[in-house]
Amino acid sequence: MPDQIKGGVHQAVVHDSAAVHVSGQAVFVDDMAEPRDLLHAYIGVSERPHAKIRQLDLAAVGAAEGVCCVVSAGDIAGQNDISPTHTMDEPVFAEAATEFIGQPLFAVAAQTRDQARRAVRLAAVEYSDLPAVLDLEAALADETLVVPAMELKRGDADAEIAAAAHSLKGKIRIGGQEHFYLEGQVSMAVPGEGDEMTLYCSTQHPTEIQQSVARVLGLAANAVNVRTRRLGGAFGGKETQAAMFATVAALIARKTGRPVKIRPDRDDDMVMTGKRHDFMAEYEVGFDDDGHILGVRYRLASNCGYSADLSEAINRRALFHLDNCYYLPSAAMKGLPLKTNRPSNTAFRGFGGPQAMLVAERVIDEIAFALGQDPLEIRRRNFYGSSERNITPYHQTIEDNVIPEIVSELAESADYVGRRAEIARYNSDSPWLKKGIALTPVKFGIAFTTKYLNQAGALVHVYTDGSIHLNHGGTEMGQGLMTKVAQVVAEEFQVDLDHVKITATSTDKVPNTSATAASSSSDLNGMAARQAAQTIKARLIDFAAKQYELPPDQIEFLPNRVRVGNQEFPFPDLVHQAYMARVSLSATGFYKTPKIHFDRQTGRGRPFYYFAYGAAVSEATIDTLTGEYRIDRVDILHDVGRSLNPAIDLGQIEGGFIQGVGWLTSEELVWGEAGELLTHAPSTYKIPVCSDRPRDFRMKLLEGAANRENTIYASKAVGEPPLMLAISVLHALSDAVASVGGHRVCPRLDPPATPECILAAVERVRSAAGHD
Amino acid sequence: MRHSIKFLLGDEPRELSSFDPTMTVLDYLRIEERRTGTKEGCAEGDCGACTIVVGSLEGEKIRYQAVNSCLQFLPTLDGRQLISVEDLPDSSGALHPVQTAMIRENASQCGFCTPGFVMSLFALYREGAAAGDPPELETINDVLAGNLCRCTGYGPIIEAARSMHQPAAGPDHFEQNSAATVAALRAIQDSQTIHLTGPDGRQSFAPTTTDALAEILAEHPGATLVAGATDVGLWVTKAQRRLDPVIFLDRLGEMKQVNETATTIEIGAAVTYTDVERMMADHYPDFGEIIRRLGSPPVRNVGTIGGNIANGSPIGDSMPPLIAAGATLVLRRGGERRQLPLEDFFIDYNKQDLKSGEFVETITLPKPAPGSRLFCYKISKRFDQDISAILGAFNLTIRDGKVASVRIAYGGMAATPRRASGAEAALQGKAWTRKTVDRAVVALASDFRPLDDLRASAAYRMQVAGNLLVKAYLEAQGAGVETRIIPYREAAHA
């Protein structure tokens, strides 16, 4: 027998669904066999950003071909609210007034989806317009907040900045981002007997869908079951945004007694749902002659859209990442979660962290230009220390800092210094095309900053044939979570991975779960599943020890078998023996993250269990006549602790990086003067394609990097941190722009760096540097 | 007249007679056939999740082409083989080499875009199978330009494409069955006009000769002509228009011809971009590059130059190069034909010089004059598979240091693709110097008053319009410095 199981932890096994993905057999919600009597629902939305609804005439809608049911706010038996944090500011259907273009007003169900879509167009809505706040600038003037402003403070930043040898101020505008999950929002509600309702939903948060449906329908949570086998991408966009579709399906299913499916067209999905927050940050920094930061003052304004949604936590995480990898001896940081008449901006991979890190890196750039130094040198000088200079602005002591080592190794392996010299030579010979290079680091805090969310449950059954059924609260959206957790269970029982059956996330199996979010799902669900497996394993050991009259240490789980004293049994044999002896072979597991705490009043605590680190060097070329660009080469060194699955982790790093590149370059959300989204389809909103991938792309996992905290097999979270490695691309572009002014003027290149934005920066730098 | 369509679904023959003539192939697969492997991602041909492969008989061979099923109307399958992801495994259920490569390279994450990628790579596999060599990165990038993936960052998919050809595995089942498939396809070819009536009485026609087209259009002057449906498809999937009647042009053999003389190239209006790309790249390399960047292979495999012209988009990519090259159109109504320069066809936004019952029959452009060169530049937010913010085409002949002839046309600068007459006048006959060029750049300001829109601001368009002329000057000088972030794609055209 082989002495290692197939598919244990740390092995690069393929995604559990790979074979069904490539053969088209993977079942997404819209692919499920449709139940008898299925209706198709569609939502009618507001065409005004802020208006009183004077009349909502749905007579023509109800009379349209195939229509069976029309619902609006008056049909809601429970509460007309799906706000995820119970701020009561997010109705299923607007009643008196509408607050953004795309806000649901009513819904219709018909025999076919085509009929439902057509019927929606027949509504006659009379609006009476109210003043609308359509962008961040207007919101800053208006200063209506969706949740209270927040602050972090350490030391006396004003005094330090005033006393510093150098100080400067500036502003950065950061664009939002559409999730562009390839599978759009989709839900199917199937009514059962009595008050029972089952939902098949593409959501990162089945428990929240369960709670929202129960609240809107006026039911107890135990009447509602939500099942999610897989999502066709989510990236934060299905953490809260799935609720409006799921609740509408459930509402009509309840009213008609028939199953209901709802799937908006891509354009409608993009218009109706929230996106990554766009930010505007003002910064002021004081620093010494060597570029050491002495104090910073930041004001971070975010465009939250019309409701609170998750903006409180997003803005908090943003404040927590304004330091990035840099020690700030004194800091005064303020977050302004501003209300606008836009869809409610929401979770998106990084959750406020990426925007904050852009601010931190801009400030480093500003210092470098002010002192005429290489930005990498300024970065290094400001890195957190390991035993001193290691307190964050939120007063957490950093205990696991590896950024200096990562940056040294990467700068060396990518030949940063040599290539910078090479690029300078190229630029002096190339009048029209210019190259740039940049190295930027990432430090990302791991844990939900809302403490109670850091818990997870799992359910493991072992059947009498030795096959294992695994269930936990995390959802699979492509990130490989199911595979990783199954590897953990296989490892625990020492059976090959194919003995572990992965099953759909379901609120009736594991209750009260947190969203699959904050990069934490392998950490949390992996631990919970391990604990469940350990419980069963302990019972098996206990059984075998008694049965064979041996001390427990004589029972050992070997690959696919169990040693009991001098004998060995195949795993299924021992399981069957235990069953015959009436041993329970099913167990739940539970995990909560230790050590974390944070006091919002004082702004002090340890919100993060640990940090994930990484760094990237990017090289890019720009065309100074058109602003077009290409990314020539990228080198990444990233810390995932001891990888649970290197293939999946590398996939997360590359995918996150490219998604970040899209955010910072080609993905531009454009809004019209009336408050309407103009870029509401892939024809106008441009995520990266295959040829946008840097031709020379080198990724490496940091070696010998076991997590110092007690995480699942010493691994680290990987979902979000790599996205921020893409900041190196923006800085490489900026460096190329700076070359037209002899690197004397900070380009202040605000993302997204479209060709137009780059050309404008080229012109600005040229004129500021006094060139022709 | 035939009142049904016949095609192969995989290996199974299908004959359909009563259906909505603008039902998409995607809806047909998912709703009628319950084949749910093909996904809807955007319903506008920009994401590729719905990619299928269509096999068409060409002589003794089957040509396999990737197509967006979300935009393709069912009647266009007549006489062809529809291959969806479900057809790829062989009869024993063993996965196709493309599929095993995708698994091996960890090329799926969420899996939603995956069937589309598999189908695009399958088309490449079939067309490139004879070569056996791993495809070049440029080829892979081109083939996958219409498939969006939001999870992987594309690296593992590129690796799968590189490693999918494993000669040791032997021919795939499509190759093994090719004789039977050819015979089955041959059996369903004919030259009858197809006339269909849907359940709600809406009609469609699919003639096979230009004369038949002229006749049907004379009888139904309000009909919608559909070539590749890459634009009309959105009228149905997005605007939910009920088109009636529809005339499909994909079976018109004559209008799919390209005829070259010593001095001209005559392109039938129903010729697809795919079928002119290489020829155009040979004569006008920059125009070839513009075509390579137009849409994606599934769009170019069905989209036609005639369609791009007839629908009159101000940002259609082929118009500025065609106008700069001096293209003319032949318009036909019934038996009457008239000819006019392409730039005169575009009257205003959405308004073309096209009479009721008239259609574009051919496009003729001269071959490059000796000593002339056509420079084309497309500026867009994303380099591949994007719509132009601005496209400039400069057809220049420099003789004895002077501008002997010049034709300049831009897209994205006005309500229609248009010539820059002021800039041309500033150059014509003048010394070919930077000073002259700068004067022409100034003249552009009187030629155009561009607009702000989601793709670019008016100011950027104006500035870049001038800079592109400067770029053409620099490149014509051949100064030996780099001027393009993406150089000529020789590999793609070789």
Task: Give a quick summary of the entry.
The complex is a heterodimer of chains A (about 775) and B (about 500). Chain A is about 30% helix and about 25% strand.
As for the CATH topology of the largest domain in chain A, it is: Aldehyde Oxidoreductase, domain 4
CATH uppermost class of the largest domain in chain A: Alpha Beta
Largest sheet of chain A: 8 strands, mixed
Tally of distinct domains of chain B:
3
**Structural class designation of chain A:** alpha+beta
Shape of chain B: globular
CATH superfamily descriptor of the largest domain in chain A: Aldehyde oxidase/xanthine dehydrogenase, molybdopterin binding domain
Query: Within the CATH hierarchy, at the fold level, what is the topology of the largest domain in chain B?
Result: Enolase-like, domain 1
Proper CATH architecture of the largest domain in chain A: 2-Layer Sandwich
Mean of pLDDT of chain B: 95
Widest sheet, order of strands of chain B: 2-1-5-3-4
Name the features.
heterodimer; A: alpha+beta; Aldehyde Oxidoreductase, domain 4; 8-stranded mixed β-sheet; globular; B: about 500 residues; alpha+beta; DNA polymerase, domain 1; Uridine Diphospho-n-acetylenolpyruvylglucosamine Reductase, domain 2; Enolase-like, domain 1; 5-stranded mixed β-sheet; 5-stranded antiparallel β-sheet; 19 helices
Protein architecture, described:
Chain A is of the alpha+beta class. Chain A has 3 domains: 18-26 and 455-592, Aldehyde oxidase/xanthine dehydrogenase, molybdopterin binding domain (Aldehyde Oxidoreductase, domain 4); 35-131 and 179-272, Aldehyde Oxidoreductase, domain 4, CATH 3.30.365.10; 279-449 and 600-770, Aldehyde Oxidoreductase, domain 4, CATH 3.30.365. Helix content of chain A is 29%, strand content 24%. In chain A, helix 6 (206-217) links the parallel strand 10 (197-201) and strand 11. The model of chain A has no long low-confidence stretch (mean pLDDT 97). Chain B has 3 domains: 97-170, DNA polymerase, domain 1 (Orthogonal Bundle), CATH 1.10.150; 194-251, Uridine Diphospho-n-acetylenolpyruvylglucosamine Reductase, domain 2 (2-Layer Sandwich), CATH 3.30.43; 255-477, CO dehydrogenase flavoprotein, C-terminal domain (Enolase-like, domain 1, 2-Layer Sandwich). Chain B contains 19 helices and 20 strands. Chain B has helices at 25-32, 97-104, 114-128, 137-143, 155-163, 173-176, 178-186, 210-219, 232-237, 273-283, 285-292, 297-300, 305-310, 319-325, 342-345, 421-427, 434-447, 458-477, 490-493, and strands spanning 5-9, 12-16, 51-58, 61-68, 81-83, 194-197, 203-206, 224-226, 246-248, 258-260, 264-268, 328-333, 336-341, 346-348, 351-352, 358-366, 372-379, 390-399, 402-411, 418-419. Chain B has a 5-stranded mixed beta sheet. The two termini of chain B are 43 Å apart. At the A-B interface, helix 1, helix 3, strand 27, helix 17 and helix 19 of A face helix 2, helix 3, helix 4, helix 5 and helix 18 of B.
